[in-house]
Amino acid sequence: MTATAENGWELSVTRFIDAPPTKVWDVMTNRINDWWCPKPWRAEFDKLERRAGGASTCTMYGPDGEVHPHPGTVLAWDEGKRFAFTDAVVGDLMPAGPFMIGIWSIEPEGNGTRYTATCRHWTEDACKQHTEMGFEEGWGACADQLVEMCEEV
What we know:
Blueprint: E1 11-17, H1 21-30, H2 32-35, E2 42-48, E3 55-61, E4 67-78, E5 82-86, E6 89-90, E7 94-95, E8 100-109, E9 112-121, H3 124-132, H4 135-150
Antiparallel strand pairs: 1-9, 2-3, 3-4, 4-5, 5-8, 6-7, 8-9
């Protein structure tokens, strides 16, 4: 799919996971720190309120001492199906420099699960910036880490 204004300057990655949706959801939500960043980076969710309007506070740590805080707000939490975050609203409904809306979803597919991570941007420039930052490689690596964790015996 091409990113356009009509689809919210959307970028996405998808993977088939050879595991039932209940297992995938459990790993996605209860082990989020373990797959959220491409290694050797790591993520720590300091706060994740599992409800629409809840706070999401994640910090990513790089191998060379980089520290990137990511405060945001949970836009949707549909148990067993999808969750969505944005960086456009932080704290107590304070506006922030909007960059993206991230949506992570799963659905049954055959004997497994279809995982899709979607990122929508306010502007074409933000979409291009995210592409140049390595969206496909980074979000793809996270998806691959999730697949590996879910398919462990």
